[in-house]
Amino acid sequence: VVLASKRVTLDNKGIGKVKNVELSPTIDNAMVERGAALFKTNCTACHKTNKRFVGPNPTGIMERRSPEWIMNMILDPKLMTEEDQCAKDLLVEFNGASMANQNLTEEQARDILEYFRTLK
Ligand code: HEC
Fold first, then answer.
1. Are 14 and 66 in contact (CB under 8 A)?
2. Which side of the chain, N or C, has fewer Cβ within a 10 Å radius?
3. pLDDT digits (tens, 9 = 90+) for 59-82
4. Ligand 1 pocket by C-beta < 6 Å: which residues?
């Protein structure tokens, strides 16, 4: 069985309000800068970009998860770990440590997504 954090689930958009995200072919650097700052403030207590920590390492995440799934996870981790199979399996893999809702706006979650596009 492939660990949930290694599984590729690109066809799954997750559960939540984000239904469709269009990624431009080029990276928007202003969004990346905002996203990196938001990540540093709200996420690094549990996520590191060079290793597995309290939660999964987000480096390379765009090759495993759809943009919609990632944004739904950021915006409502409780709903996702209750209703989405992949998020449920992640919760088990990470020993029931649940991701705290950081109460971000959709725009802020989109900025973090753009930052994630640079983590390869
Ligand atoms: C309190 C710790 C904590 C904080 C703070 C936190 N997370 Fe998480 N995150 C987790 C855990 C633990 C998981 C694994 C799922 C679970 O156990 O709920 C996770 C899962 C994820 C996933 C799915 C990863 C994958 O490989 O599929 C993403 C994306 C994510 N978090 C992004 C974020 C972002 C962005 C922030 C900041 C806005 C954030 N997290 C803040 C603990 C946290």
1. yes
2. N
3. 999 999 999 999 999 999 999 999
4. 5, 39, 42-43, 45-47, 54-56, 58, 61, 65, 70, 73-74, 77, 81, 90-91, 94, 97-100, 102, 104, 112
